[in-house]
Amino acid sequence: MTDAYAQCEEGGTMTDGGRATGAKGPDELRRQVEEARGRLAGTVGELAERTDVKGRAQARAADLRDKAGALTVQLRSSAAQAGHAVQDRAGRTGLRRPRPVVIAGAAAGAVVAVGVLRRRGRR
Prior knowledge:
This protein is mainly alpha-helical. It folds into 2 domains: 3-51, no CATH class; 53-122. Helix content is 79%, strand content 7%.
């Protein structure tokens, strides 16, 4: 029998990492037991979080969805600003309908669409 175990049998408690600390009465013993329970509950909660793979994966997926949504908003805003800038430049040059700009934009869009369709076809 170890000294710590013997002290525990004599009325002490095991609360300080395996070291026996003697309680100085029933109230002190109750306080020590409550402290130990609190520490154990926190430890169990941390272990449960670490082993919850599904929950962690869902949280990560939600974070990625939020980032993708924010990026989409940012890209739309940038595209709108670029469109307005092109219209402003075309307006300053005196063109009512900026045909070269529209044709270049349509061509760029077609190239992107063809690239996307080819890439999907390979999968």
